[in-house]
Amino acid sequence: MGDTADGQDGDPADSASKLGFEVVDIVPDGDVVLDVTFETSKETLRAARKAAKPRPGQKEAAPVFKPRTRVGYRVELAVLKQNSKYFDNLLSDTRFAEARAIEASFEKLSLKNVKPSEADAAELPVVRIHEDDEATRSAGQDSAFEDLLRILHRKQSTSKAVTMHYLAVLAVLADRFDCIAIVSRYLNALKYKWPATQTRLARDDGPALSRATEETLRQKILVSWLLDQPPKLHAATRELIMYGSRRWSAFLDEDDDDHNAAAWWDLPDDLERELHNRRESILATIASIPRHFLSLYTSRTRQCKLGYDSSASCDSYQLGEMLKFLSSRNLLFLSDFSSPYSPYSPHSSTHSHSHPPPMQDADLDFATTDIGQILATLKQCPSYQIDKNHTNCGLRTRVLPALEHVQAMLAAGAVSISRQAWVKDREGASWFLQNGDGGEGKKATKKVFRFTRGLATDQRLRVEGAMVAERMARGLFTAGEWDWTAEDEEGGRGVEFGRWPAAR
Q1: What is the distance between the alpha carbons of residues 472 and 489, in angstroms, rounded to a whole number?
Q2: Do 125 and 147 belong to one domain?
Q3: Is residue 99 part of a domain?
Q4: What is the pLDDT of residues 121-141, one digit of tens each?
Q5: Same-domain check for residues 214 and 247
Q6: Domains in the chain, number
Q7: What is the DSSP code string of 222-288?
Q8: Domain interval for residue 144
Q9: Of 210, 219, 151, 209, which is closest to residue 181 (Cα–Cα)?
Q10: What is the pLDDT of residues 15-67, one digit of tens each?
Q11: What is the tens place of the pLDDT at every residue in 247-258?
């Protein structure tokens, strides 16, 4: 987006009608005219016209969108410079052609003894601005830009219906013209009720976000970040982490990727990467629970808890039931040692339908699966028994305390983004640099999280907002390895038969 300037010669014969574009009076006694050209891409126009197509029975005519719109705005120079650092730098520094043109135009008007506030629009200095739709992918930006100028001049905005999309475009423009502070105050005074995130039921996968709902949620994150709304940022980032994003899918279509080009589909200031990484860290933590117990039941260590009648058959039975449960709920996928290029592979063009592959790639994509639904599914694990005597040998009694602990940690504020922490110390607040392997390019010992009986019964971790819960949640989700056997670090073996613990 480039800016150039053009000063008028002040000839009385020039009038507003001869400027070649319509002039909107933001203030009737303004002393500068902003000549703004709005460019809209073909893709954006196509999408906007499709969305604005009137429904059957709708009386209102669809708005007309043009690939190029040119509008002039009569504004007050002092107000622009006071409320926008962009305009202050552009129109005050004589190293820029715009500032020199304004000085020359004002000097000509003073020689004619004409005050700029009383001059005709055609006699005023003109500052040309070019705006494209690269950041917003939205048609009709002239309406939001006009409202931005009215906000700078503390005038009533003209927008009839305030939507999240409108606020997102306004926030992008406020960031572009460096006038965040006054637009943030306007948003607070607006008392706009932010829309709640509405989910849809996606078969057995639990609640999920439609594309439109995710777009609105992302717009909430962008607006709350740019316009300094910490509570809104806290809530919206947590929702996106929990529900996931189609933007993070490994199977994203190229067409979908082009369509998701607006600023809110690639959140600024490393927010996109951080939110994605936090979700991946949480998913890895939850996946470590069944993986931990599968490794125990496939080891040579006896897991049956019946004492003298402990049985290897019980362990084999429990392992089989665990595999059956996790596979049936699509939480575990089995694959053999065959090459991905074999005739039975889903990647092979010679794939035979009579021999279906053991696994499909899409099964591994949990980018849009609700984390809460995964926990709820794992909690449905039945209490399997090989017979009536083996009452505490199954997975359920061992996995539920770990799942309850993870659920308690997900309620901690550390899961979402704190605006204050992200602004002051991004490196310290980031999970990406605090993950189990020490971050990119760093060699460090993996942090190991050990689940003990003390953690399982600690009631402080159930209180939302507790400082200890904040630290514990971060430690849990940024670990590199997890040990979910709920034994105390010391004295885990208890009293052996015929032997007391050594005196201390």
Answers
A1: 17
A2: yes
A3: yes
A4: 889 999 999 999 889 989 889
A5: yes
A6: 3
A7: HHHHHTT-HHHHHHHHHHHHHH--GGG-TT--HHHHHHT-SGGGS-TTTHHHHHHHHHHHHHHHHHH
A8: 3-53+64-158
A9: 151
A10: 446 678 889 999 999 999 999 999 999 888 888 888 777 767 666 666 788 89
A11: 998 876 655 554
